[in-house]
Design a protein that fits this description.
Helix content: 55-70%
Number of helices: 22
CATH architecture of the largest domain: Up-down Bundle
Number of strands: 12
Structural class: alpha/beta
Strand content: 5-15%
Distance between the termini: 49 Å
Largest sheet: 6 strands, mixed
Number of domains: 2
Radius of gyration: 36 Å
CATH class of the largest domain: Mainly Alpha
CATH topology of the largest domain: ABC transporter transmembrane region fold
CATH superfamily of the largest domain: ABC transporter type 1, transmembrane domain
């Protein structure tokens, strides 16, 4: 079982989460220490607030004895003024220190978790196609956006107040024990029961929160799948089916939310009841102590005030425990992704590809099977010489697109090797390998932005206007772009929704030409296009692939026949190879496919 799987199933404790995110605290230690100091000072001011009231009750409210010596009496109005001023000062200082701590926690928390989100996004992009094939995009988006956002919120609205409450609780308990340990024990008698109850309910709240986050991920996945394929949903009349799937996921998430709210309310009300019992006990026993002259009325006032403030942190813990439980569930899902290791990654001794790479591509005794065990290649051998254009054809499911994915190291072979200029591609860094290969997929990536921005995707420089024109003329696209309202600065819709399939393919071919890579891989570039669009794309392919090592994956036998050589994949290997005329004469798969 992988480390990530263990995390997902067993869950993480608060300590484990803090240790996992400790590296992100670097550079913020002084700020956090300052925030904690501000919280400590705020707590001291909170502890000082009831004392002016004690002095007023004990020294001002009672009528002084007229026969007492004058030296022993302090002017009541002066003492009242001093106590009022002291109370005001304590309140102002407490508010100032607490404000400072809140701001620092907010700034540090946002900076730390912004880095976490950036690292998570970077890590998600580095995980292989095998991982993304099994994962649901909506759930990953929830983890990246909502779960990290929940951690940000918890840093300020839960973690910082909880720390402050712990300090207040500890300080007030200490002062109460110092004033009168007997009365303090009476006041704190309900705490053990409260501790056991809160621990029990917090564990249940955390379990419910973890399940709720999973339900929310499933809900997001269902909605994103429906909206991403909205055209197919509508044309196939699947609206009601998708509504039922979404409603089912929505109901499950709602039930978990209600269950969590019920547990949180039970914990908060339990705290209220036990706090009330403690207050009743202190009021009764404390009044007896005052009547016996063991403590002053002011001491009892401090006890009652402290007791209310002592149970307020505990009541706050009940409220913040639910938030922290949800944040901890979110943290588990974030850490699960951050700790997920992938088989497709750079070897420790991987090196960058040399700048003078020629582009000879080789597949030697390649064995590959999908994660479900379905075998694709069983000793495949194929060589594409430098500058040669080879078309790969064969029956559906033979592994044509998988061959392209292996060449790009989207998957790794189980046995055998794939080479680039006789160098095993696993000995090259992933980034440098993919920088040497231009890939044109069946469904090109078109981002929302200008035509110019989309042409420059993947480049480490801004192409000049002349370079853009050269590339788009080769891709038979320049005249179309110039017919747009703003030419190369025309905004494109998300996923290129305003472009036809052929226009998207030709834009992707122009982008591939701009990259000037020694190797070009094309995956089904004419699939789904009408005859006119396909003819334009074929002309663009001829121009863009000129003098480049080109591997074409296609079902289009007319397009394949234009290439230098054809390789037919069948039965886990290369069944036949040669130019189109030789394969027709041999009467193999190509001849049979053309005849049918």
């Amino acid at each position: 079982m992988s480390k990530a799987s263990e995390t997902s199933e067993a869950g993480l404790g608060l300590g484990a989460v803090l240790r996992r995110f400790r590296p992100y605290m670097r550079g913020h230690v002084l700020a956090l220490c300052g925030a904690v100091c501000a919280l400590v000072l705020s707590t001291l001011m909170r502890l000082a607030e009831p004392w002016p009231l004690k002095f007023v009750i004990d020294a001002v409210v009672p009528v002084p004895d007229a026969n007492a010596p004058a030296a022993t009496l302090i002017d009541p109005m002066l003492l009242l003024a001093l106590c009022a001023g002291g109370l005001l000062l304590a309140v102002l200082l407490r508010a100032g220190f607490h404000y400072l701590a809140t701001i620092v926690f907010a700034v540090v928390g946002n900076r730390m978790l912004t880095r976490v989100r950036a690292d998570l996004f970077r890590h998600l992009q580095s995980l292989s196609i095998g991982f993304h094939t099994k994962s649901r995009t909506g759930d990953l988006t929830i983890r990246l956006v909502s779960d990290v956002g929940m951690l940000k919120d918890a840093m300020v609205t839960a973690a910082m107040p909880l720390l402050a409450n712990i300090l207040i609780f500890g300080g007030m308990v200490g002062v109460m024990l110092w004033l009168d340990w007997r009365l303090a024990l009476v006041a704190l008698a309900p705490l053990p029961l409260l501790w056991v109850l809160s621990r029990f309910l917090t564990v249940r709240i955390r379990k419910v929160s973890r399940t709720q986050r999973k339900r929310q991920g499933a809900l997001a996945a269902t909605s994103s799948e429906a909206l991403a394929g909205i055209a197919s949903v509508q044309t196939l009349g699947l609206e009601e089916h998708m509504n039922k799937a979404f409603s089912g996921a929505n109901e499950k998430e709602m039930r978990e939310g209600v269950k969590g709210a019920r547990l949180t309310a039970r914990l908060e009300r339990s705290v209220d009841v036990l706090a009330g019992l403690g207050l009743v006990a202190v009021l009764y026993y404390g009044t007896l102590q005052v009547l016996d002259a063991r403590i002053t009325p002011g001491d009892l006032l401090i006890f009652v005030s402290y007791l209310k403030h002592t149970f307020r942190p505990v009541r706050g813990y009940a409220k913040y425990a639910a938030r922290l439980a949800k944040a901890l569930a979110a943290a588990e899902r974030v850490v699960d992704l951050l700790d997920r290791e992938d088989a497709v990654r750079d070897r420790p001794d991987a090196r960058p590809a040399s700048s003078d790479l020629g582009g000879k591509l080789g597949f030697a005794n390649v064995h590959f099977a999908h994660q479900d065990g379905a075998k694709v290649f069983d000793g495949l051998n194929l060589t594409v010489n430098e500058g040669e254009r080879v078309a790969v054809i064969g029956p559906s499911g033979a592994g044509k697109s998988t061959l392209a994915a292996l060449a790009l190291r989207l998957h790794d072979v189980q046995d055998g090797r794939i080479t680039l200029d006789d160098t095993d591609i696993r000995d090259l860094t992933l980034q440098s390998l993919r920088s040497k290969v231009a890939f044109v997929p069946q469904d090109p990536l078109i981002m929302s932005g200008t035509v110019r921005d989309n042409l420059a995707l993947g480049l480490d420089r801004d192409p000049s206007d002349q370079e853009l024109e050269d590339a788009t003329r080769r891709a038979v696209l320049h005249d179309f772009i110039m017919s747009l309202p703003d030419g190369y600065d025309t905004m494109l819709a998300e996923r290129g929704a305003t472009l036809s399939g052929g226009q998207r393919q030709r834009l992707s071919l122009a982008r591939a030409f701009l990259r000037r890579t020694p190797v070009l891989i094309l995956d089904e570039p004419t699939t789904g296009l009408d005859r006119e669009s396909a003819a334009s794309v074929i002309a663009a392919i001829d121009a863009v692939s000129e003098e480049r090592t080109t591997l074409l994956i296609t079902h289009d036998l007319i397009l394949a026949s234009r290439f230098d050589r054809i390789a037919t994949i069948s039965g886990g290997g290369v069944a036949e190879t040669g130019d189109a005329s030789a394969l027709r004469a041999a009467g193999g798969w190509l001849a049979a496919a053309e005849a049918s």
